[in-house]
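> call design_seq(struct)
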């Protein structure tokens, strides 16, 4: 059930993952938001939306030296990169996967 699928979602959304796995987690809960909308589970939709927004905001905001998750612009590559690259992300490998999850969540 939807309620079982979202069990502990706040901790899962905000856990300490790299750019790829975090994107997959965000996309999963974005999909569950769509299900919540279709089932008219407004409270669940609102909770998921708030948690996803907070996490996305965190990735697009630098909070100082202790910040472990954010994107930065690399002038040499001319691209946005994660401070915690995975799977060749720092070499522009699979950006369509990495950023696709974030764009999907932003939508």
């Amino acid at each position: 059930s939807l309620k079982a699928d979202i069990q502990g979602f706040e901790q899962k959304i905000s856990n300490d993952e790299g750019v790829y796995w975090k994107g997959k987690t965000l996309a999963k809960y974005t999909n569950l938001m769509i299900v919540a909308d279709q089932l008219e589970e407004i409270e669940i939709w609102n909770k998921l939306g708030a948690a996803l927004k907070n996490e996305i905001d965190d990735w697009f905001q630098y909070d100082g030296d202790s910040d472990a998750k954010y994107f930065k612009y690399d002038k040499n590559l001319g691209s946005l990169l994660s401070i915690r690259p995975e799977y060749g992300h720092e070499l522009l490998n699979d950006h369509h996967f990495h950023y696709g999850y974030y764009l999907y969540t932003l939508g």
